Amino acid sequence: MNRLPRVVSVCLLLGSAGLYGCAGHQNSERALQSASADFQKVKGDTNVLRSAPKDVIRAGELLAKAERLSGYAGSSDDVSHYAYLSSRYSAIAAEHSQLLLNQEKLARLELERQRLQLALREAKLSGAQQQGKWAQDQVISLSTQQSERGLVMTLGDMLFDTGRAELKSSANRTVLKVVQFLQFNPKRVVRIEGYTDSTGDSQENLQLSRDRAQAVADVLSDLGIEDERIQVEGYGDQFPVDVNSSERGRALNRRVEIVFSDEKGHLSAAR
Amino acid sequence: MSFLLRTRPLFVAMAIASLFGCANDPAPNEQLKLTEQAVAQATAVGATDDEPDMVTAQSKLTQAQAAMAKKSYKDARMLAEQAELDARLAEARELTEKSDEQLAQVNARLDRLRKQLGAAR
User: Fold this and answer.
1) pTM of the predicted protein model
2) Of A64, A232, A261, B4, which residue has the fewest beta carbons closer than 10 angstroms?
3) Is ipTM strictly over 0.90?
Protein backbone atom coordinates (compact mmCIF):
# COMPACT_ATOMS: atom_id res chain seq x y z
CA MET A 1 0.00 0.00 0.00
CA ASN A 2 2.89 2.21 0.84
CA ARG A 3 5.05 1.16 -2.11
CA LEU A 4 2.60 1.79 -4.89
CA PRO A 5 2.70 5.61 -4.90
CA ARG A 6 6.49 5.47 -4.83
CA VAL A 7 6.59 3.22 -7.88
CA VAL A 8 4.16 5.47 -9.65
CA SER A 9 6.19 8.56 -8.88
CA VAL A 10 9.41 6.90 -10.02
CA CYS A 11 7.69 5.89 -13.25
CA LEU A 12 6.45 9.42 -13.71
CA LEU A 13 9.90 10.81 -13.08
CA LEU A 14 11.54 8.47 -15.55
CA GLY A 15 8.81 9.15 -18.09
CA SER A 16 9.20 12.89 -17.85
CA ALA A 17 12.99 12.61 -18.02
CA GLY A 18 12.62 10.56 -21.19
CA LEU A 19 10.23 13.12 -22.62
CA TYR A 20 12.60 15.90 -21.75
CA GLY A 21 15.51 14.13 -23.41
CA CYS A 22 13.35 13.55 -26.42
CA ALA A 23 12.35 17.22 -26.59
CA GLY A 24 15.99 18.30 -26.43
CA HIS A 25 16.83 15.91 -29.20
CA GLN A 26 13.91 17.10 -31.32
CA ASN A 27 14.95 20.73 -30.84
CA SER A 28 18.48 20.03 -31.92
CA GLU A 29 17.23 18.03 -34.92
CA ARG A 30 15.08 20.96 -35.94
CA ALA A 31 17.95 23.42 -35.50
CA LEU A 32 20.16 21.17 -37.57
CA GLN A 33 17.62 20.93 -40.36
CA SER A 34 17.05 24.65 -40.54
CA ALA A 35 20.80 25.34 -40.42
CA SER A 36 21.25 22.91 -43.26
CA ALA A 37 18.50 24.60 -45.28
CA ASP A 38 20.03 28.04 -44.62
CA PHE A 39 23.40 26.80 -45.74
CA GLN A 40 22.06 25.22 -48.93
CA LYS A 41 20.42 28.51 -49.81
CA VAL A 42 23.58 30.64 -49.51
CA LYS A 43 25.75 27.93 -51.04
CA GLY A 44 23.60 27.92 -54.16
CA ASP A 45 23.67 31.70 -54.54
CA THR A 46 26.57 32.77 -56.73
CA ASN A 47 26.33 36.35 -55.50
CA VAL A 48 26.73 35.27 -51.90
CA LEU A 49 29.61 32.96 -52.80
CA ARG A 50 31.33 35.79 -54.60
CA SER A 51 30.88 38.47 -51.95
CA ALA A 52 31.12 36.54 -48.68
CA PRO A 53 33.02 33.31 -49.33
CA LYS A 54 34.55 33.19 -45.84
CA ASP A 55 31.21 33.40 -44.09
CA VAL A 56 29.81 30.64 -46.30
CA ILE A 57 32.80 28.43 -45.51
CA ARG A 58 32.38 29.04 -41.76
CA ALA A 59 28.67 28.21 -42.05
CA GLY A 60 29.59 24.95 -43.77
CA GLU A 61 32.26 24.02 -41.21
CA LEU A 62 29.97 24.66 -38.26
CA LEU A 63 27.15 22.74 -39.90
CA ALA A 64 29.47 19.76 -40.43
CA LYS A 65 30.47 19.97 -36.77
CA ALA A 66 26.84 20.00 -35.67
CA GLU A 67 26.07 17.02 -37.90
CA ARG A 68 29.05 15.09 -36.56
CA LEU A 69 28.00 15.76 -32.95
CA SER A 70 24.41 14.72 -33.63
CA GLY A 71 25.68 11.14 -33.86
CA TYR A 72 26.54 11.14 -30.16
CA ALA A 73 24.05 10.70 -27.33
CA GLY A 74 23.64 13.56 -24.90
CA SER A 75 25.10 16.15 -27.25
CA SER A 76 21.89 17.89 -28.26
CA ASP A 77 22.92 21.19 -26.60
CA ASP A 78 26.13 21.24 -28.60
CA VAL A 79 24.32 20.29 -31.79
CA SER A 80 21.84 23.14 -31.29
CA HIS A 81 24.70 25.51 -30.53
CA TYR A 82 26.73 24.77 -33.64
CA ALA A 83 23.62 24.65 -35.81
CA TYR A 84 22.74 28.09 -34.47
CA LEU A 85 26.20 29.45 -35.24
CA SER A 86 26.05 27.96 -38.73
CA SER A 87 22.67 29.57 -39.39
CA ARG A 88 24.00 32.92 -38.21
CA TYR A 89 26.96 32.70 -40.57
CA SER A 90 24.61 31.88 -43.46
CA ALA A 91 22.48 34.91 -42.57
CA ILE A 92 25.57 37.14 -42.25
CA ALA A 93 26.80 35.92 -45.64
CA ALA A 94 23.43 36.71 -47.25
CA GLU A 95 23.42 40.14 -45.62
CA HIS A 96 26.97 40.95 -46.76
CA SER A 97 26.08 39.89 -50.26
CA GLN A 98 23.03 42.16 -50.29
CA LEU A 99 25.19 45.04 -49.07
CA LEU A 100 27.71 44.52 -51.83
CA LEU A 101 24.98 44.34 -54.48
CA ASN A 102 23.54 47.59 -53.12
CA GLN A 103 26.93 49.26 -53.21
CA GLU A 104 27.52 48.21 -56.79
CA LYS A 105 24.10 49.51 -57.73
CA LEU A 106 24.79 52.77 -55.91
CA ALA A 107 28.01 53.24 -57.84
CA ARG A 108 26.17 52.74 -61.13
CA LEU A 109 23.39 55.14 -60.14
CA GLU A 110 25.95 57.70 -59.01
CA LEU A 111 27.50 57.68 -62.47
CA GLU A 112 24.07 58.08 -64.01
CA ARG A 113 23.37 60.98 -61.66
CA GLN A 114 26.56 62.76 -62.69
CA ARG A 115 25.71 62.26 -66.34
CA LEU A 116 22.21 63.68 -65.85
CA GLN A 117 23.55 66.62 -63.84
CA LEU A 118 25.87 67.52 -66.64
CA ALA A 119 23.10 67.23 -69.21
CA LEU A 120 20.80 69.33 -67.07
CA ARG A 121 23.40 72.02 -66.63
CA GLU A 122 23.96 72.20 -70.35
CA ALA A 123 20.25 72.34 -71.01
CA LYS A 124 19.79 75.14 -68.52
CA LEU A 125 22.74 77.06 -69.86
CA SER A 126 21.52 76.91 -73.45
CA GLY A 127 18.05 77.82 -72.27
CA ALA A 128 19.38 80.83 -70.44
CA GLN A 129 21.39 81.93 -73.45
CA GLN A 130 18.39 81.61 -75.74
CA GLN A 131 16.43 83.91 -73.54
CA GLY A 132 19.05 86.38 -74.61
CA LYS A 133 17.84 89.43 -72.89
CA TRP A 134 19.04 88.36 -69.50
CA ALA A 135 16.02 90.19 -68.32
CA GLN A 136 16.12 88.79 -64.85
CA ASP A 137 18.51 91.37 -63.52
CA GLN A 138 15.57 93.31 -62.27
CA VAL A 139 14.38 90.22 -60.49
CA ILE A 140 17.68 89.40 -58.91
CA SER A 141 19.00 91.92 -56.57
CA LEU A 142 22.21 90.53 -55.29
CA SER A 143 22.04 92.84 -52.38
CA THR A 144 25.17 92.97 -50.34
CA GLN A 145 23.58 93.10 -46.94
CA GLN A 146 26.85 92.55 -45.18
CA SER A 147 25.06 92.96 -41.90
CA GLU A 148 24.72 90.17 -39.37
CA ARG A 149 23.00 87.94 -41.95
CA GLY A 150 25.90 88.01 -44.39
CA LEU A 151 25.54 88.01 -48.15
CA VAL A 152 21.92 87.62 -49.18
CA MET A 153 20.55 87.03 -52.65
CA THR A 154 16.86 87.54 -53.29
CA LEU A 155 14.94 85.50 -55.84
CA GLY A 156 11.85 87.46 -56.68
CA ASP A 157 8.30 86.31 -56.91
CA MET A 158 8.34 86.26 -60.73
CA LEU A 159 10.45 83.12 -60.66
CA PHE A 160 7.47 81.15 -59.35
CA ASP A 161 3.92 80.76 -60.62
CA THR A 162 1.29 82.00 -58.18
CA GLY A 163 0.68 79.48 -55.43
CA ARG A 164 3.11 76.99 -56.96
CA ALA A 165 6.44 75.84 -55.61
CA GLU A 166 8.25 74.91 -58.86
CA LEU A 167 10.85 77.29 -60.18
CA LYS A 168 10.11 78.67 -63.63
CA SER A 169 12.71 78.17 -66.34
CA SER A 170 13.32 81.90 -66.30
CA ALA A 171 15.16 81.24 -63.04
CA ASN A 172 17.80 79.20 -64.88
CA ARG A 173 20.34 81.94 -65.13
CA THR A 174 20.09 82.97 -61.51
CA VAL A 175 20.32 79.42 -60.34
CA LEU A 176 23.32 78.71 -62.54
CA LYS A 177 25.01 81.78 -61.13
CA VAL A 178 24.50 80.54 -57.63
CA VAL A 179 25.76 77.08 -58.54
CA GLN A 180 28.84 78.53 -60.20
CA PHE A 181 29.50 80.76 -57.22
CA LEU A 182 29.23 77.82 -54.84
CA GLN A 183 31.50 75.73 -57.01
CA PHE A 184 34.15 78.42 -56.98
CA ASN A 185 33.74 78.75 -53.22
CA PRO A 186 33.63 75.15 -52.07
CA LYS A 187 33.65 76.01 -48.36
CA ARG A 188 30.66 78.28 -48.53
CA VAL A 189 27.28 76.94 -47.51
CA VAL A 190 23.82 78.45 -47.98
CA ARG A 191 20.54 78.73 -46.17
CA ILE A 192 17.56 79.05 -48.46
CA GLU A 193 14.70 80.93 -46.85
CA GLY A 194 11.18 81.13 -48.25
CA TYR A 195 8.78 84.02 -47.52
CA THR A 196 5.23 84.88 -48.59
CA ASP A 197 2.95 87.88 -48.28
CA SER A 198 0.24 87.94 -45.64
CA THR A 199 -2.67 87.04 -47.93
CA GLY A 200 -4.35 83.74 -47.17
CA ASP A 201 -3.99 81.16 -44.47
CA SER A 202 -0.78 81.55 -42.51
CA GLN A 203 -0.29 77.80 -42.17
CA GLU A 204 -0.56 77.39 -45.94
CA ASN A 205 1.80 80.30 -46.41
CA LEU A 206 4.31 78.65 -44.14
CA GLN A 207 4.08 75.45 -46.19
CA LEU A 208 4.34 77.31 -49.50
CA SER A 209 7.37 79.26 -48.31
CA ARG A 210 9.02 76.04 -47.24
CA ASP A 211 8.17 74.29 -50.51
CA ARG A 212 9.56 77.15 -52.58
CA ALA A 213 12.77 77.21 -50.59
CA GLN A 214 12.99 73.44 -50.98
CA ALA A 215 12.42 73.73 -54.74
CA VAL A 216 15.40 76.05 -55.02
CA ALA A 217 17.45 73.69 -52.84
CA ASP A 218 16.47 70.75 -55.05
CA VAL A 219 17.61 72.52 -58.19
CA LEU A 220 20.95 73.43 -56.59
CA SER A 221 21.39 69.85 -55.48
CA ASP A 222 20.42 68.55 -58.92
CA LEU A 223 23.07 70.77 -60.42
CA GLY A 224 25.72 69.21 -58.25
CA ILE A 225 25.81 71.14 -54.98
CA GLU A 226 26.16 68.73 -52.06
CA ASP A 227 23.06 68.48 -49.87
CA GLU A 228 25.19 69.05 -46.78
CA ARG A 229 25.85 72.60 -47.96
CA ILE A 230 22.19 73.53 -48.25
CA GLN A 231 19.83 74.36 -45.39
CA VAL A 232 16.17 75.09 -46.00
CA GLU A 233 13.82 77.28 -43.94
CA GLY A 234 10.28 78.51 -44.48
CA TYR A 235 9.09 81.63 -42.68
CA GLY A 236 5.65 82.13 -44.20
CA ASP A 237 4.51 85.73 -43.93
CA GLN A 238 6.99 86.68 -41.20
CA PHE A 239 9.76 89.23 -41.77
CA PRO A 240 8.13 91.25 -44.58
CA VAL A 241 10.46 93.60 -46.45
CA ASP A 242 7.60 95.93 -47.43
CA VAL A 243 3.98 96.67 -46.57
CA ASN A 244 1.38 94.01 -47.30
CA SER A 245 -1.25 96.63 -48.07
CA SER A 246 -0.07 97.38 -51.62
CA GLU A 247 0.25 95.07 -54.60
CA ARG A 248 3.87 96.06 -55.04
CA GLY A 249 4.69 95.51 -51.38
CA ARG A 250 3.13 92.06 -51.43
CA ALA A 251 5.12 91.13 -54.54
CA LEU A 252 8.33 92.13 -52.76
CA ASN A 253 7.39 90.13 -49.70
CA ARG A 254 6.90 86.99 -51.78
CA ARG A 255 10.48 85.92 -52.24
CA VAL A 256 13.15 83.32 -51.65
CA GLU A 257 16.35 84.53 -50.06
CA ILE A 258 19.62 82.71 -50.36
CA VAL A 259 21.87 83.50 -47.42
CA PHE A 260 25.53 82.74 -48.12
CA SER A 261 28.03 81.85 -45.45
CA ASP A 262 31.46 83.49 -45.34
CA GLU A 263 34.42 81.85 -47.14
CA LYS A 264 35.06 79.64 -44.15
CA GLY A 265 31.56 78.19 -44.13
CA HIS A 266 30.23 80.19 -41.16
CA LEU A 267 26.55 80.89 -41.71
CA SER A 268 24.60 83.49 -39.78
CA ALA A 269 22.04 82.06 -37.39
CA ALA A 270 18.58 81.27 -38.73
CA ARG A 271 15.88 83.78 -37.88
CA MET B 1 54.62 17.85 12.76
CA SER B 2 51.16 18.41 14.00
CA PHE B 3 51.12 21.56 11.88
CA LEU B 4 51.87 19.57 8.75
CA LEU B 5 49.23 17.02 9.53
CA ARG B 6 46.66 19.65 9.96
CA THR B 7 47.50 21.47 6.74
CA ARG B 8 47.80 18.40 4.55
CA PRO B 9 44.06 17.99 3.93
CA LEU B 10 43.97 21.57 2.77
CA PHE B 11 46.68 20.88 0.16
CA VAL B 12 44.90 17.79 -1.00
CA ALA B 13 41.65 19.68 -1.29
CA MET B 14 43.34 22.44 -3.29
CA ALA B 15 45.03 19.92 -5.57
CA ILE B 16 41.74 18.20 -6.23
CA ALA B 17 40.01 21.50 -6.80
CA SER B 18 42.63 22.59 -9.34
CA LEU B 19 42.38 19.22 -11.12
CA PHE B 20 38.64 19.61 -11.25
CA GLY B 21 39.05 23.10 -12.67
CA CYS B 22 41.37 21.73 -15.36
CA ALA B 23 38.89 19.09 -16.38
CA ASN B 24 36.36 21.84 -16.94
CA ASP B 25 36.43 24.19 -19.93
CA PRO B 26 39.06 26.93 -19.71
CA ALA B 27 37.83 30.46 -19.09
CA PRO B 28 36.82 31.91 -22.50
CA ASN B 29 38.47 35.28 -21.92
CA GLU B 30 39.41 35.80 -25.56
CA GLN B 31 35.93 34.93 -26.80
CA LEU B 32 34.37 37.39 -24.37
CA LYS B 33 36.67 40.13 -25.58
CA LEU B 34 35.79 39.27 -29.17
CA THR B 35 32.08 39.39 -28.38
CA GLU B 36 32.40 42.71 -26.59
CA GLN B 37 34.20 44.09 -29.63
CA ALA B 38 31.53 42.76 -31.98
CA VAL B 39 28.78 44.38 -29.90
CA ALA B 40 30.72 47.64 -29.71
CA GLN B 41 31.28 47.59 -33.46
CA ALA B 42 27.60 46.97 -34.20
CA THR B 43 26.72 49.86 -31.89
CA ALA B 44 29.28 52.03 -33.65
CA VAL B 45 27.68 51.52 -37.07
CA GLY B 46 24.32 52.47 -35.55
CA ALA B 47 22.62 49.20 -34.68
CA THR B 48 20.17 49.88 -31.85
CA ASP B 49 17.61 47.95 -29.86
CA ASP B 50 15.28 48.29 -32.85
CA GLU B 51 17.34 45.46 -34.31
CA PRO B 52 16.10 42.24 -32.61
CA ASP B 53 19.48 40.57 -33.13
CA MET B 54 21.14 43.42 -31.26
CA VAL B 55 18.86 42.86 -28.28
CA THR B 56 19.66 39.14 -28.38
CA ALA B 57 23.39 39.85 -28.62
CA GLN B 58 23.35 42.16 -25.65
CA SER B 59 21.29 39.90 -23.44
CA LYS B 60 23.45 36.87 -24.30
CA LEU B 61 26.59 38.87 -23.57
CA THR B 62 25.21 39.82 -20.17
CA GLN B 63 24.33 36.17 -19.51
CA ALA B 64 27.81 35.12 -20.64
CA GLN B 65 29.39 37.59 -18.24
CA ALA B 66 27.22 36.27 -15.43
CA ALA B 67 28.24 32.70 -16.32
CA MET B 68 31.90 33.80 -16.25
CA ALA B 69 31.40 35.15 -12.75
CA LYS B 70 29.94 31.81 -11.71
CA LYS B 71 32.86 30.03 -13.41
CA SER B 72 30.50 28.03 -15.66
CA TYR B 73 32.89 28.48 -18.51
CA LYS B 74 31.19 26.25 -21.05
CA ASP B 75 27.96 28.20 -20.80
CA ALA B 76 29.91 31.43 -20.93
CA ARG B 77 31.73 30.35 -24.09
CA MET B 78 28.60 29.17 -25.89
CA LEU B 79 26.64 32.29 -25.00
CA ALA B 80 29.52 34.55 -25.99
CA GLU B 81 30.00 32.75 -29.30
CA GLN B 82 26.32 33.14 -30.12
CA ALA B 83 26.27 36.77 -29.00
CA GLU B 84 29.25 37.56 -31.22
CA LEU B 85 27.46 36.31 -34.33
CA ASP B 86 24.18 37.94 -33.27
CA ALA B 87 26.02 41.25 -33.05
CA ARG B 88 27.76 40.73 -36.37
CA LEU B 89 24.45 39.91 -38.03
CA ALA B 90 22.86 43.01 -36.46
CA GLU B 91 25.76 45.07 -37.80
CA ALA B 92 25.42 43.60 -41.29
CA ARG B 93 21.63 44.18 -41.24
CA GLU B 94 22.13 47.78 -40.15
CA LEU B 95 24.61 48.42 -42.97
CA THR B 96 22.31 46.85 -45.56
CA GLU B 97 19.38 48.92 -44.30
CA LYS B 98 21.46 52.07 -44.56
CA SER B 99 22.44 51.27 -48.12
CA ASP B 100 18.78 50.53 -48.95
CA GLU B 101 17.94 54.03 -47.75
CA GLN B 102 20.79 55.49 -49.79
CA LEU B 103 19.52 53.68 -52.86
CA ALA B 104 16.03 55.07 -52.35
CA GLN B 105 17.47 58.57 -51.99
CA VAL B 106 19.57 58.36 -55.13
CA ASN B 107 16.62 56.94 -57.05
CA ALA B 108 14.42 59.84 -55.91
CA ARG B 109 17.11 62.28 -57.03
CA LEU B 110 17.41 60.57 -60.39
CA ASP B 111 13.64 60.79 -60.88
CA ARG B 112 13.76 64.49 -60.11
CA LEU B 113 16.66 65.02 -62.48
CA ARG B 114 14.94 63.18 -65.31
CA LYS B 115 11.78 65.20 -64.73
CA GLN B 116 13.75 68.45 -64.82
CA LEU B 117 15.62 67.39 -67.92
CA GLY B 118 12.31 66.60 -69.59
CA ALA B 119 11.06 70.09 -68.71
CA ALA B 120 14.27 71.79 -69.80
CA ARG B 121 14.26 70.23 -73.24
Assistant:
1) 0.62
2) B4
3) no
